[in-house]
Amino acid sequence: MAISTPYRWLLAAVAAAGLGVGGVVVAQIDDAPRAPQAVETGGTFEVGGIDVDVVGKSASAARIEGWRIAQRKGWTMLSRRFGGSTSSPSDSTLDSLVSGIVVENERIGGNRYIARLGVEFSRARAGALLGISGGGSRSSPMLVVPVLWSGGVGQVFEQRTPWQEAWARFRSGNSTIDYVRPSGTGPDSLLINTGQVLRPGRGWWRAILAQYGASNIVIPVVHLSPRWPGGPVIGTFQARYGPDNRLLRTFTLRVANSDGIPALLDAGVKRIDDIYQQALTAGLFRSDPGLSYRPPDPNAETPADDAIADDLSGVVDHGASIIVQFDSPNAASVTATETALRTVPGVRAAVTNSLALGAISVMRVSYDGDVNQLAAALEARGWQVTRGAGAIRIQRSTGGGPAPDDKTGG
Questions:
Q1: Cβ distance 141 to 214 under 8 Å?
Q2: What pLDDT digit, counting tens, does each position of 83-124 carry?
């Protein structure tokens, strides 16, 4: 639902489903036979469950006023969450902090607007006003491998599944887990499948994680079991992680019939996310050395054959290959980021090999040094850098402008 307003808000209309649990189901995926695109909310703080009841000169005026009231209430709730002041900034300031309004439920009639809303605040701008750096710490990038078992058959991305769609709908803005959610297109179904989930070998997992710019794996699993045709459906959920497919916790949810499966899966995603956040807090998501990039051993013996040495004399050393994740809201930002990286001393090449416009793309950088040296060089140029295992995530140091040494624009 697109509505023109002066606030640059994203409006996502949702329908509250049964199941006896609260939550937002975002209308992100339609019935078209295309791959579901993940709702990227990692750069926002989210506050939900805000009730408004407003009377205005018209239904449209009442709705706008209801959204403004939701902004104020949402800021107060967010500020309390981080122990800040409960006083609300001016409406103009809030307009610059809010990046989205989520409609959980609304009724419009005459000149009255009754709704339950959610508000998304920019992590960078709101975090600066709240006095928290970067909006709080998050995990290293975790590749999501959603496995659905139904009728004795396991699927990941071989076909479009409701479990894949549920993870695409999930709004991860308040989660401390940095999820990397493949869309299921291109080589996804070949690289990530049920066979790979059961394969603990680190070598192939390293190649897959490098392809997607992730540091580790989370494996949310659901077994759907209908009791009889048209009857109740039971979902048995498992929160697993790592190349060894380790089990954290299992739980079961139930709905009256197959019409409630989307709500069942949405509730399961939220429960599993809570489990993963608890595991992160408990220190279970430690870096796996087997998944880290292994540079060649400089002390390794090389063939002594003079002919081979002569053949290699003309080969140029292109440095270490480092994975760099970056925000790519549009095509121009991709070009600008590549250009900015190429101006860093020591960078021989910077090529985007996984493009995701409107989300996070992945670039492979050839650099004369290691990942820590590249990170330090980028930080010196004003980038915000998050280090991972053989990979880094870079972000603009300001709300969207170029880094200080980036002369190309964004």
A1: yes
A2: 666 677 888 888 877 877 888 888 888 889 999 888 887 766
